[in-house]
User: What shape does this take?
Amino acid sequence: MLIANAPCSWGITYPTGNAYTWQHYLDEVAAAGYRGTELGPFGFLPKDPALLKDALAKRDLAMVGATHVHTFGDAASAPLLMQTLRELAPLLVSLEAKHLVIMDESNWYPEGQEGALDEAGWAGLTQMVRDAQALVEGDHGLKLSFHPHIGTAVEREAQIDRLLAETAIDLCFDTGHHAFWDQDPLAYMERTFPRIAYMHLKNVDGAVRRRVLDGQLSVAASYGAGVMCPLPDGVVDIQAVMRLLEARGFAGPVVVEQDVAANAVESPLQLATRNLSYMNAIAK
Assistant: This one.
């Protein structure tokens, strides 16, 4: 099973203003031993397919897909979503990627009101999901999936269940984001496995999570405090997750992601290397 990584593990969440150039990122993700990468925020890696294809080939990297963040809580933003997907999907097709992931934008929600949508807002979200799926899958032949994420309108199991019931979209399932609210990733994977098309592997620091659950730490501050810890160090049984994927014959992408804490002593390259070493060890 090919294990990929993503630009977010290097702190790259926007197309510009990053500490790493796109060449530096590709050099380091390859140096860490990964053979696949996500596209990252649209515009960070080159939009020129020939240039990007050559850069990937030189580093023996495959493009596995892209995760696109959009303000699904704002129904008026639907035309922008479709415009972006009309540009993004063909690029992925040209790079021989098979998947595109969409995700709600957590920064759009005021602190303390993360994920709060009224019925009209939810209707707008689900309509955007349906329209995006028709475009991406119907017009471009890619598999579209939705990523439940902390601090958005789709983060708790009841919200995910509702999205699955009211749309035909499948999931990009993130072990860390699911476990953040003390939900059981393995149990939910067992229950919804036919609707899981894409995997993000993250782990959660149990002590930091407890501070959030006890109201001592905000969701936003928990990232800097290291709530998303390296794969070997957290409460999610990543080895059990991988056993489940193997047993069920999972064929979608598996992407390691690592949010870097404010006080991290390891560099993104060191963290990525350690995470892959752990993945290789549990595979034996």
DSSP finds eleven helices and ten strands in the chain. The radius of gyration is 18 Å. The CA atoms of residues 22 and 45 lie 6 Å apart.
